[in-house]
Amino acid sequence: SQVRVQQLYLIEHNDALRVRVERGGEISKQERLHQITPRPSKNLREQKILVMITEISFPAADGSLTIYGNLTLPFNDSANGKSVPAILVVNGSGPIDRNGNVPSMKMNFNTCNRFAEHISTRTAERSIAVLSYDKRGVGKSIKKQDKNIFYRAGMMDMVLDAVEAVRYLSQHPRIDKMRIVVLGHSEGAIIMPLICHEVSRSGLDPIFGCIFYAGFGENLKDAMILQRKRCLEEVREMKGAYGWILRRLVTKEGMEKQYNDMMEKMSKFVVSFVTLKRQITGGAI
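^ that's the sequence the OP posted. Answer follows.
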């Protein structure tokens, strides 16, 4: 049987050795097992830990496009047919891809792929799969005829796309569907309760656990006050010509106006939404 593999590598002696297979190559299961089956070792630090990173895809919640991502699997357990728990990474706000980067702004943080590698390769005892994906309108999760799909996406689009990612994992033969954990970063942490709720409503097994990573610990107003304060502090401390320019562009008055304008737009939207719902429901909210 043929398996399309994006990346296959071997970790030995605490990351000292890596054997890579050409990206996107097709390798038969027999050849892969024959060539690089991990050898047993009593010393976990010396045991080879093989990881398979496969590009996967699943339909978006509304069926308008296909979502692409990377599934990182501990190959030892995959080869033995053993099901493993999985962590689904739900990224924060902005056009974030499967690696945790912002390709449109050339901002490379590599948070997701580093997390996946850390989880999958630190020790042979910890056999956990990791799934991360390109948000709709980002990376490969696009529609060529629609360049604005990311900017039209609403909160529930993000929530329901995450539910479809959970559905993909729950149907994967190597994943233990009863042990799927969601890791939400920033916005991903904020919408995580909704994701769990919608997973239950969809008929899937409940989420096994949640990891809240850098989510809000306060209301939106207080969080944005803190963000503006930190931003101004960083601009004041910047050196050189770049700092001089930013201090003239990024001001307290300008940021306050931007915040007030945004809140006014949000208030108008809420009023319009409530009015429309009352008209539809005959007065009930």
